[in-house]
Amino acid sequence: MDQRVGLRERKKLQTARSLWVTAIELFAEHGFENVSVAQIADAAGVSKMTVFNYFPTKEDLVLRPLEEHIDEPARLIRQCLAEASGLGPLRAFVLKCIAEHDPIVGMNDGPRVLAVYRVMLGTPALFQRAGRFAVQSEELVAETLRTRLPDMVARIAAAQIIGVLSALRARNLERLLAGEKPAAVEPDATADANLAFDLLEHGLGEHFDALT
Question: At what angle do helices 88-99 and 151-177 cross, to 10 degrees?
Answer without folding.
Answer: 10
